[in-house]
Design brief:
mainly alpha
């Protein structure tokens, strides 16, 4: 990590990024287009926005091995699966429940890293995992009393979170050999292709949407991606990775508040208690990180 000072105080872009990622579920809710179409155009517009900033790095594509291309393909597939499942969950369950479950991504990455990389978590990490999982139990228990539809949405969000955790485990391996920019660009292109094939297979209309929908597709690329995740990646030059990781706690809080304001989705007692447990568990998990982790170059929302 560089020791140079950023051109502005890190707190400013950090706050901008935390606010930006909170708008991801809100924008998904506002769109009437199929989630696979939303995801496809979000990836397309993100790639278009990224291209001008790394044209010189494109020459390095020729040096990527066949094994790494297979890993990149898998990363793109699981990122597409994450978007498909998580965005669909917002149709069935509340914004609060969906984003609380999504914030469990670091815990699932920790579990996967234990089996894949033999990374043994310490006591704080294990305690944090237990507390966070208990929080998910509270959220799910509360949604059972609401409807089976809400439980189905929670399940989609959980499966989507597992998918993005697999994506992150692949990133952890391949980023040792491929730059973060090139990794992100290629994975986003592959994700776009996966969505395109999925839409073709289901004969989902990919054109003919009103101007408002195209505006939402573009905003999904600009707000939570450019002003969210790309700002976080830029900040990794100046602040610790654990500081950036803390932003995962902002999404369920910010998104839930926006859900109450814009959609009148009041947070239930179970969601509140579950959210507190999840955040407390994630705080313990973050404390367990002794060294900076691999930068997060995927989109989780």
């Amino acid at each position: 990590m560089k020791t140079t000072s950023p051109p502005v105080s890190p707190i400013i872009p950090l706050l901008v990024g935390m606010a930006a990622i909170s708008f991801a579920p809100i924008l998904v809710r506002y769109s009437d287009a199929p989630v696979a179409v939303q995801g496809m155009y979000r990836m397309l517009f993100t790639v278009v926005l990224m291209l001008p900033f790394g044209l010189k790095q494109l020459r390095a594509i020729a040096s990527i091995s066949v094994k790494d291309w297979l890993l990149l393909g898998a990363a793109g597939f699981f990122l597409a699966l994450h978007f498909l499942l998580w965005m669909a969950s917002l149709t069935y369950t509340s914004i609060a429940s969906s984003t609380i479950i999504l914030s469990m991504e670091p815990v699932f990455v920790m579990i996967g890293a234990y089996f894949v990389f033999k990374d043994k978590p310490n006591g704080f990490a294990l305690l944090g995992m237990f507390i966070a999982l208990l929080g998910i139990f509270f959220v799910g228990s509360g949604d059972v009393s609401l409807s089976q539809t809400a439980v189905y949405g929670d399940t989609l969000s959980l499966l989507g979170t597992l998918a993005v955790a697999v994506n992150m485990l692949i990133a952890k391996r391949i980023l040792k050999r491929v730059s973060s920019y090139l990794y992100s660009l290629i994975v986003f292109i592959i994700t776009f292709i996966c969505f395109g094939l999925y839409n073709l297979a289901l004969d989902t209309p990919m054109t003919g949407y009103p101007a408002q929908e195209w505006g939402i597709f573009l905003l999904l690329a600009i707000v939570p991606t450019v002003f969210g995740h790309m700002i976080f990646n830029w900040l990794l030059q100046y602040v610790k990775a654990t500081t950036i990781s803390m932003t995962v706690l902002a999404e369920p809080i910010g998104a839930s508040l926006l859900g109450m304001l814009l959609f009148r989705e009041m947070v239930t007692g179970f969601q509140l208690v579950g959210g507190v447990f999840v955040i407390a568990g994630l705080l313990l998990y973050m404390r367990s990180e002794q060294t900076a982790a691999t930068p997060d170059t995927s989109l989780s929302t």
